Amino acid sequence: MGRILNHISGDFDIISLDGGDKGNAIPVSSTAKIVCEDAEKLIAELKAYADVIKNEITFRESGFALEIDSAGQGEYGVIEKPCAKKLIYILLCAPNGVVEMSAEIENLVETSLNMGILKTEEEKMTVAFALRSNKKSAMKFLEEKLDTFFGCVDCKITKSGHYPPWEYNSNSTLQGLYKEKYKEKFGYEPKVEAIHAGLECGVFASAIENFDCISIGPLMHGIHTVNEELSITSTKDIYEVVLKMLEDLR
Known about the structure:
Number of strands: 7
Order of helices and strands: HEEHHEEEHHHEEH
Strand content: 15-25%
Strand order of the largest sheet: 3-4-5
Structural class: alpha+beta
Shape: elongated
């Protein structure tokens, strides 16, 4: 959206900008309400540029589409030009996406962030980001980077919902024990992976010194959606593996 608005050659004003409704999810759409003198010319320009973008990103964003509706003439309250200019700058230049890949674990994203919410209200606009990293120092640096960026565009910065990183432990005793009991149960070792997500394990590990923990579970599909499914058979199997682990840990 920032790219499209920045490309407009004629004079226009922004009424509102909105997109996303979950801070920790990548938005699937955004909406801009704008007003201008020559709507037909603007619409033609937007359609032509949308084709350029679509040709460029079709292999990674096949569902990209730009929809344009005309609201007709009327009186509109608009965002002041200096503020509108800062908004487009934020959309174009704010850090967003993968920041750093792990040097320890192949194909693992180490640090990232996403702009999850863009909301226009009567007296303010809100831009919300979710930050992720499995390195405490990298998370701290990313916070400092955003502080510096938004400080330069005179934004009020608030922080909430912080969860601590959970750093990968290649020497985990629990991991070795789980692999052993899993193999006894199924005849093969489980695949051990580090993932780029916030888990409760990080909260416990940050509060308890030398805390060893792993994240395991049964087969699930469509997690965090209305179509979420849980395999009952797999739940029973993993429960039995955990019981065997507990026997050895007594």
